[in-house]
């Protein structure tokens, strides 16, 4: 197990753009542990380590397992963006769910509460893009789903198997009712965060006018990533 000065706090992100505000604000330094890239540094006096797992439950679970094998983590923070489903939250709004649900199995996880944030609603984790409005309405009205993502339930499960406390700080990057993120857009990136060049070429051949749409998505995602990172950093003082 990799030695640090104390038991580190861990930050888990699915995408590099979610990690960027953490590395910038905390001065994290890229290094390699066990053949895998990590970012290490401090949050105040606390040691910190951060990783990017890739998107989806499989890559998220594998990434966290590797991290927990390498470090004796004191507390783990899931940090990043989420879709609002049919919720009415503003772009950039912080999501603090009371329950995280693994959609395919219905398995539920409850994050550790830190600070004075109100926790409400369910965060729904699913590997497939849900863009059917009727399904989204049902999730919102019948299950109390306020946001959707692709990793948190898998990360929570891995932590709970190891007895590692975890919290989640996500922020809204898009609303399904606006239709910005559809199946075509979803395919522009591979789960490992590499660009899907074939899908990108086909998309712009079909939608040459889509540059402005993608620019808005990027700006909204950056705002959400900044919000989530700032909230997670601030929460460390409550440990």
List keywords for this structure.
four-stranded mixed β-sheet, seven-stranded mixed β-sheet, 36% helix, 239 residues, 26% strand, alpha/beta, Rossmann fold
Description:
The chain has 239 residues and is an alpha/beta fold. It has one domain: Rossmann fold (3-Layer(aba) Sandwich). 36% of the residues lie in helices and 26% in strands. The chain is built from seven helices and eleven strands. The protein has helices at residues 16-26, 57-70, 133-143, 152-162, 183-186, 197-206, 211-235, and strands at 9-13, 29-33, 36-43, 46-52, 75-83, 94-95, 99-102, 107-109, 122-125, 145-149, 166-174. Strand 2 (29-33) and strand 3 form a beta hairpin. The longest helix has 25 residues, at 211-235. The model has no long low-confidence stretch (mean pLDDT 93).
Helix and strand topology:
Layout: E1 9-13, H1 16-26, E2 29-33, E3 36-43, E4 46-52, H2 57-70, E5 75-83, E6 94-95, E7 99-102, E8 107-109, E9 122-125, H3 133-143, E10 145-149, H4 152-162, E11 166-174, H5 183-186, H6 197-206, H7 211-235
Parallel strand pairs: 1-4, 1-5, 5-11, 7-9, 9-10
Antiparallel strand pairs: 2-3, 3-4, 6-11, 7-8
Helix pairs in contact: 1-7, 2-4
Task: Please report the first level of CATH classification, the CATH class.
Answer: Alpha Beta
Order of helices and strands: EHEEEHEEEEEHEHEHHH
Q: Round the Cα radius of gyration to an integer and report it.
A: 17 Å
Query: Into how many domains do the coordinates divide?
Result: 1
**Low-confidence spans:** none
Q: Which range does the strand content fall in?
A: 25-35%
Nearest-integer average pLDDT: 93
Helix/strand-derived class?
alpha/beta
Helical percentage:
25-40%
Q: What is the fold-level CATH name, i.e. the topology?
A: Rossmann fold
Tally of individual helices: 7
């Amino acid at each position: 197990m990799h030695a640090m000065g104390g038991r580190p706090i861990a930050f888990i992100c699915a995408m590099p753009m979610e990690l960027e505000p953490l590395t910038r604000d905390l001065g994290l330094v890229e290094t390699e542990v066990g053949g895998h890239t990590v970012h290490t540094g401090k949050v105040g006096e606390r040691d910190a380590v951060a990783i990017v797992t890739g998107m989806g439950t499989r890559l998220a679970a594998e990434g966290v397992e590797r991290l927990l094998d390498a470090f004796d983590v004191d507390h783990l923070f899931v940090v990043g963006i989420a879709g609002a489903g049919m919720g009415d939250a503003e772009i950039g709004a912080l999501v603090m769910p009371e329950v995280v649900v693994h959609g395919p199995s219905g398995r539920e996880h409850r994050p550790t509460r830190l600070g004075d944030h109100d926790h409400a609603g369910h965060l729904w984790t699913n590997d497939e893009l849900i863009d059917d409005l009727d399904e989204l309405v049902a999730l919102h009205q019948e299950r109390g789903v306020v946001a959707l993502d692709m990793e948190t339930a898998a990360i929570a499960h891995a932590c709970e198997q190891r007895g590692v406390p975890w919290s989640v700080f996500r922020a809204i990057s898009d609303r399904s009712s606006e239709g910005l993120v559809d199946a075509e857009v979803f395919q522009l990136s591979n789960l490992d965060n590499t660009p899907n060049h074939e899908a990108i070429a086909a998309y712009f051949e079909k939608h040459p006018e889509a540059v402005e749409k993608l620019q808005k998505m990027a700006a909204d995602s950056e705002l959400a990533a900044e919000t989530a990172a700032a909230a997670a950093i601030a929460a460390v003082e409550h440990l």
